[in-house]
């Protein structure tokens, strides 16, 4: 039977061995006056040094000077220096075993410590169980156990005893948590939970497998399938409050396990563990199904109006020839009337002669038809698909309980009216139904012949519901993505301390006074510079700013150096590269078993699973192409060890080590980053986040929005819809994926720029630097009159509404503090704010604040060519990352074939991890290649190294058979030999 371990070798070293770094030695092993007094009572320097060693090791790590163990030289030297004795005298200590025993007792009595006995094991297990209620990580449990035993004045038992107690405590915590959850469930509910694992012939699978199989592509059939699953779960009668029956971590652990455990495995669990896992899984599934159903409702209603708009556009295109003829006819008529005016002739006679009265009369029906087409509202066109809407609208409204405040209450009344009318098709709506529409024209359109048109009314109400759900004006309790807007923010009292830590002056009066003065000063200076021609490449032509594009900043010598260094890089298979990066960075330790927190005993299986995601090869084909890894191992690994949290932790480890590489300093200070979206096709089936964006063709697809540091470390990526605005995702990578990086500046393309992002970046302490391609169409903002700035009056739009900022200041800084604390993702806030058809006050305030920052940035952009050049260089790095992503993600023609957004995100995470690993490995060996050139007597212009990229892949074998058993790397931190095409390479020492 395989031995079960709580800790890895590295964790044991961290916990059980004395620390010998300079700071730790001073902190843990400095002797006090009282220590020196009791030590001085021993006879001779040998005994004095011996009892000092006992005292030191009883304090840290807490085991004392054990039999057959010794004290590290660094600690011994420090103790010797304090006692004024030679370290070598310690060699004679303990020749008489009883002396060591006596000294151990004396030191323990002096420190007030007592030995750990067999009778204390049960207490240790309970201490470990309490720690395990908050974490499954072995190191966390063992550290907590050690700290508590030391606090209770115990001499720590042997490490093996601590590990066994930790394992037993973790098992007890799991059983305790399961019992706490099951105790909240009734007998009938327990029977229904057990039935989830029994195969249902009508479903062709177990109910649990059916519930997990959530359809993703938007269709009425799939919508009803989601609603049916949601109702099935609600019929089980498990309240979401059951999550409070045990600790949040323990319940979350049951959720994580219940999300991936196959039914046959759950069936083998003990009663309580199985039922607790199923209960947690059901609670989580209810939330996921509710979010999925509302998201599909959004997409179905949006598709209804999108198709209506496209149909209208097609009709416009079809009538283009007729419009041309009518315009020419109209032009000829005007010419005839103009001649009548000049000559005094009869207009009707001239029109008849020059145009033909019969031709005008014949054109009248076409003119009327075009006028009707131009006035046709998308609501009317969308209602043509009312039968499609009716296939799911009744079930949807019956499934959810919507809540609202303020203006949203009128919408709730309209929804209640529709529910009542859903009793039968012939039910008439009242003459004056609630009109919750922001589009006032709709209130007129729904009236036909003096009566309310139910198809138009219902379509308009559901479209309004969609908008208000997206904005948070209307919410559904028990969901994650559709909560009340205020629920995403920190409570007002709790937010105060977080607000005080924001990198701005949080006093609104002082802040706005300072900004007003700064903006006025900068605008006056810019106006003077522009008038006097002191801005290189910037001119004002016909009241529009023109900026001369900058020339490429990469010198030919840099390209030659890049090729020379690239030629020296070792030729390596992707399997070998991953194994080496894992050895150097330790990122594999992040991939732990979802259930036990244990590291995988076969690293190649984890690397193969990552490669299956990142190359889009898939588990089955990866197993077929792999040596030393079977399909069963891969499937098991992907199920239990590959998770979003594990991917995130592993990526952070690689990025951290990447930024520590000496060669990375050539690329910048590590304080800037760039972000951009990359499109990937998904084939003909729309699923997950897939949408059709005409910019990329007529096939559906998704975008991966990624962030890249100036050191070329790809630290964040996430899936987004191909049609979604990129701006809400700009800050996600900075706040959620780069907390350990000292980032201060972010470059984006024009698509990521918006006033809201400018404002939020500023509140969070980041400098936002988008590439300003549409500069001529953007207006500057000013707080005072634009007439004060001579020569540039034409560049200003509306005055900045400082009063709006001041009125909403408390909520603005509360929102920023909530994002900074990790309470909510920036993209959620920005999407909610942008969803309002009529902007709310907070949205307006953030926009006005962003206009101030955008104006200041625009002045920087125009006055500082170096800023424009740095932005372009940052975005070029992102383009190089996209090229590497295309090269890695090649299987299945580079298409995302996964049906669900969750699985698509797995692919994106695997791809990003591979890119980060390749960039780290390349940067490591680029440094060695540069050192080789220097040692070979070749002079290198150090400034050219800033233009060298670690995102090349020609030297890496990305495809073929994956020979994991042959992919070896020396574990002694050695290096691979540089590439030597001529056999004359001098190896770097």
From TrEMBL:
GO terms for biological process: DNA transposition. Residues 576-962 form the Tn3 transposase DDE domain. Residues 6-165 form the DUF4158 domain. Keywords: DNA recombination, DNA-binding, Transposition. The keyword Coiled coil does not apply. One of its GO terms (molecular function) is transposase activity. Signal peptide: none annotated. The keyword Secreted does not apply. Belongs to the transposase 7 family. This is Transposase.
């Amino acid at each position: 039977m395989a031995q079960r371990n709580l800790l890895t070798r590295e964790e044991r070293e961290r916990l059980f061995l004395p620390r010998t770094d300079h700071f730790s030695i001073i902190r843990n092993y400095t002797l006090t006056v009282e220590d020196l007094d009791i030590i001085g009572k021993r006879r001779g320097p040998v005994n004095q040094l011996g009892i000092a060693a006992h005292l030191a090791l009883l304090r840290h790590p807490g085991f004392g000077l054990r039999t057959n163990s010794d004290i590290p030289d660094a600690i011994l030297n420090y103790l010797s220096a304090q006692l004024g004795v030679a370290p070598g005298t310690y060699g004679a200590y303990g020749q008489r075993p009883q002396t060591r025993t006596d000294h151990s007792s004396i030191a323990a009595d002096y420190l007030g410590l007592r030995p750990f006995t067999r009778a204390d094991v049960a207490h240790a297990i309970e201490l470990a169980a309490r720690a395990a209620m908050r974490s499954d990580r072995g190191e966390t449990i063992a550290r907590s156990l050690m700290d508590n035993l030391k606090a209770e004045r115990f001499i720590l038992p042997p490490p093996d005893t601590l590990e066994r107690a930790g394992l037993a405590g973790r098992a007890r915590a799991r059983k305790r948590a399961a019992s706490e959850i099951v105790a909240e469930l009734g007998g009938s509910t327990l029977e229904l939970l057990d039935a989830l694992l029994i195969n249902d012939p009508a479903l062709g699978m177990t109910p649990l497998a059916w519930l997990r199989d959530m359809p993703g592509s938007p269709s009425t059939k799939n919508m009803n399938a989601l609603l049916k699953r949601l109702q099935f779960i609600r019929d089980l009668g498990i309240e979401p409050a059951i999550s409070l029956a045990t600790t949040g971590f323990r319940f979350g652990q049951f959720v994580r396990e219940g999300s991936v455990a196959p039914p046959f495995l759950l069936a083998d669990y003990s009663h309580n563990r199985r039922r607790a896992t199923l209960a947690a899984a059901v609670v989580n599934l209810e939330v996921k199904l509710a979010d999925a159903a509302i998201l599909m409702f959004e997409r179905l209603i949006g598709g209804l109006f999108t198709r209506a708009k496209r149909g209208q556009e097609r009709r416009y295109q079809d009538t283009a020839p007729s419009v041309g003829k009518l315009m020419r006819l109209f032009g000829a008529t005007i010419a005839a009337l103009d001649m009548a005016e000049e000559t005094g002739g009869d207009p009707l006679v001239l029109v008849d002669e020059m145009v033909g009265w019969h031709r005008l009369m014949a054109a009248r029906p076409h003119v009327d038809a075009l006028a009707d087409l131009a006035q046709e509202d998308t609501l009317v066109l969308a209602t043509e698909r009312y039968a499609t809407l009716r296939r799911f609208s009744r079930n949807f409204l019956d499934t959810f309980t919507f809540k609202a405040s303020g203006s949203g209450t009128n919408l709730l009344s309209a929804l209640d009216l529709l529910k009542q009318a859903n009793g039968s098709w012939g039910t008439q709506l009242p003459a004056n139904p609630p009109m919750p529409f922001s589009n006032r024209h709709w209130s007129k359109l729904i009236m036909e012949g003096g009566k309310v048109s139910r198809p138009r009314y219902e379509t308009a109400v559901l479209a309004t519901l969609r908008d208000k759900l997206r904005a948070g004006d209307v919410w559904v309790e028990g969901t994650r993505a559709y909560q009340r807007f205020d629920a995403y923010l920190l409570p007002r009292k709790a937010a105060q301390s977080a607000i005080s830590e924001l990198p701005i002056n949080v006093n609104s009066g002082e802040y706005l006074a300072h900004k007003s003065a700064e903006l006025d000063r900068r605008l006056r200076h810019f106006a003077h510079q522009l008038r006097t021609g002191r801005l290189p490449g910037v001119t004002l032509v016909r009241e529009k700013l023109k900026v001369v594009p900058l020339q490429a900043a990469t010198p030919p010598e840099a390209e030659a150096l890049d090729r020379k260094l690239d030629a020296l890089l070792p030729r390596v298979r992707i399997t070998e590269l991953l194994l080496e990066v894992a050895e150097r960075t330790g990122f594999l330790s992040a991939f732990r078993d979802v259930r036990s927190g244990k590291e995988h005993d076969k690293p190649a299986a984890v690397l193969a699973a990552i490669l299956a995601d990142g190359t889009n090869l898939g588990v089955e084909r990866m197993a077929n192409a792999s040596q030393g890894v079977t399909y069963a191992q891969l499937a098991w690994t992907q199920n239990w060890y590959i998770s979003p949290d594990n991917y995130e932790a592993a990526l952070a480890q690689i990025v951290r080590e990447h930024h520590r590489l000496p060669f990375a300093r050539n690329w910048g200070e590590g304080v800037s980053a760039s972000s951009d979206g990359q499109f990937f096709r998904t084939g003909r089936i729309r699923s997950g986040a897939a949408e059709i964006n005409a910019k990329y063709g007529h096939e559906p697809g998704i975008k991966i929005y990624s962030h890249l540091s100036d050191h070329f470390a790809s630290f964040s990526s996430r899936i987004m819809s191909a049609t979604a605005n990129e701006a809400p995702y700009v800050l996600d990578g900075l706040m959620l994926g780069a907390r350990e990086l000292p980032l201060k500046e972010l470059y984006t393309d024009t698509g990521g720029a918006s006033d809201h992002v400018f404002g939020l970046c500023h509140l969070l302490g980041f400098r936002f630097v988008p590439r300003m391609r549409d500069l001529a169409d953007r207006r500057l903002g000013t707080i005072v009159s634009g007439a004060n700035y001579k020569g540039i009056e034409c560049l200003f739009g509306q005055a900045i509404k400082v009063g709006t900022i001041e009125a909403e200041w408390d909520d603005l800084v509360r929102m920023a503090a909530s994002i900074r604390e990790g309470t909510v993702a920036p993209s959620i806030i920005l999407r909610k704010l942008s969803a309002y058809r009529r902007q709310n006050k907070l949205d307006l305030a953030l926009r006005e604040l962003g206009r101030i920052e955008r104006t200041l940035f625009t002045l920087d952009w125009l006055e500082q060519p170096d800023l424009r050049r740095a932005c372009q260089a940052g975005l070029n790095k992102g383009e190089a990352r996209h090229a590497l992503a295309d090269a890695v993600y090649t299987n299945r023609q580079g298409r995302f074939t996964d049906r669900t957004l969750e699985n698509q995100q797995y692919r994106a995470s695997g791809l990003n991890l591979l890119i980060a690993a390749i960039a780290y490995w390349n940067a490591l060996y680029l440094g060695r290649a540069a050192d080789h050139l220097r040692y070979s007597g070749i002079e290198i212009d150090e400034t050219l190294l800033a233009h060298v990229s670690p995102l090349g892949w020609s030297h890496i074998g990305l495809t073929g058979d994956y020979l994991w058993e042959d992919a070896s790397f020396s574990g002694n931190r050695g290096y691979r030999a540089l590439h030597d095409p001529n056999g004359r390479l001098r190896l770097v020492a």
